[in-house]
Amino acid sequence: MTQVETGALHLERLEGGAYWDVELSSSRGNVLDSELTSALVSTFEEAARAPEVKAICLRGRGKHFSFGASVGEHLPEKVGAMLPRFHRLFRAIDESAVVCLAAVRGQCLGGGLELASFCHRIFASPDAKFAQPEIVLGVFAPVAAIVLPERIGRAGAEDLCLTGRTIDAAEAAEMGLVDALTDEPEKAALEYAREHLLPRSAASLRYAVRAARLPLSRRLEEELPRLEKLYLEGLMTTEDAAEGIRAFLEKRPPIWRNR
Q1: Which pTM was predicted?
Q2: Is residue 205 included in any domain, yes or no?
Q3: Which residue, among 15, 45, 31, has the nearest Cα to 193 in the 3D structure?
């Protein structure tokens, strides 16, 4: 077992390096700020170069998986740099072609839900809560617009993305967002990998991942740039997008002008 600790995450290489346990640890709530996002990109780029890796498990330090992307980095003067950097994370996961598991406890919100949903399987504790609350702040979630319909169907994806409502683990499992409910999601993820993934060829697994995810990879390549443009050149020119972000940071209700 080898361990790597940065200011943003903790990495343990288990099972002879075939299984990487990645603990998000950037801040209270494991916010996916620029430091944590960059650390995750580096981790998946390293995994892409490590032929022995068969699975990576993402989990949060403390009571929560992740509160999502940094709201402060969504301000108009910062979002132009933040959004492409955040989207690079999902391209790095996709390009690594490693099986990715999520062990979720507590809050899994916004960008945190996008990250968990991009994994191949989600193991969640009964106390887990899930939400795509960007619309509450006057914005939308580009990655969720691609991955959630793939995972739970268009009706379920639109429900979460258009309302911003929070669902509990039981409802998430019922709609297919969560694959397994368990009191010990980290242990369940490792047991799943030991039974179903680690006995397989790492090389063959990567080709199987690429094959299974070919439609999603194509959507990521073709549609994410269009959604990014829609966000930066469309949404962020509206008054309400900036108002929603500033209202959240100032801890007050937004005053929508509907333009």
Answers
A1: 0.96
A2: no
A3: 15
Q: Are 164 and 132 in contact (CB under 8 A)?
A: yes
CB atoms within 10 A of CB 224: 18
In a domain, 217, yes or no: no
Identify whether 214 is part of a domain: no
Can you say whether the dihedral through the CA atoms of 6, 19, 190, 160 is positive or negative? positive
Residue-wise pLDDT for 202-231, tens only, equals 999 999 999 999 999 999 999 999 999 999
Give the CATH number for residue 147.
Answer: 3.90.226.10
Q: 């997008």: which residue's tokens? A: 241
Name the residue among 235, 241, 255, 238 with its Cα closest to residue 138: 241
Instruction: Give the integer Cα–Cα distance in Å for 18 and 201.
Output: 10
Describe the crossing of helices 111-118 and 142-163 by its angle, rounded to 10 degrees: 120
